Amino acid sequence: MNRMENLYRQIIMEHYKNPRNKGLVDDERYNKSHIRNPSCGDDVTIQTLVEGGEVKDIRHEGSGCSICCSSASVLSALLKRRPVEEAQYISTQYVNMVSGQSYDTDVELEDAEAYQGVKQFPARIKCATIAWQAFEDTLGGDDDE
Ligand code: ZN
Predict the structure, then answer these.
(1) Could you list the residue range(s) of the whole structural domain that residue 127 is in?
(2) 141 in helix, strand or coil?
């Protein structure tokens, strides 16, 4: 394992052990989305509060592998308090990076950069992206569930 891979692993494990913004809130102003990944047992719920075109808050809850759970924490820390369009754009770049597609490398992905090695493990791509898909669902405006 080279130094970069080691650093990325540490970032992922740190978010896994000390997740940011974990736990759902009982507040109907939040949009909620729930996604499961049967191949790995990952189960993620994202709650997002959007007000005045800004992502005011992101909460997450769920269970699953370290990649899935940690990436929900990374997402919440990275995208909270951003304009909706910016959060959506950053999320798209992240998903493209993880799935090995071209993405805008000028975007500061911060801790989310730690997942760039995931593209080498196609079975884990879903693990690293379901929280982000759920987040994008919450921006869609329809409040399902
Ligand atoms: Zn997983």
Answers:
(1) 3-139
(2) coil
Residues that place a CB less than 5 A from ion ligand 1 = 40, 42, 64-65, 68, 127
Could you tell me if residue 144 is inside a domain?
Answer: no
> Ligand 1 centre from 51 Cα, in Å?
31
Tokens 């493990």 found at: 121
How confident is the model over 14-43, as pLDDT tens digits? 999 999 999 999 999 999 999 999 999 999
Q: Does residue 72 contact residue 45 with C-beta atoms inside 8 Å?
A: no
Residues 6+ apart with CB under 8 A from 90: 78, 79, 82, 107, 109
84 Cα–ligand 1 center, Å: 27
Q: What confidence score (pLDDT) does residue 101 get?
A: 97
**Who's near 16: CB < 8 A, 6+ residues apart?**
66, 69, 70, 73
- Asked whether the whole model's pTM tops 0.85, one would answer yes
Report how far apart, in Å, the C-alpha atoms of 33 and of each of 42, 48, 88 are.
14, 9, 15
Q: Residue 29: inside a domain, yes or no? A: yes
* CATH number of the domain where residue 29 is located: 3.90.1010.10
Number of domains in the chain: 1
Residue 132 lies in a domain: yes
Q: What confidence score (pLDDT) does residue 96 get?
A: 98
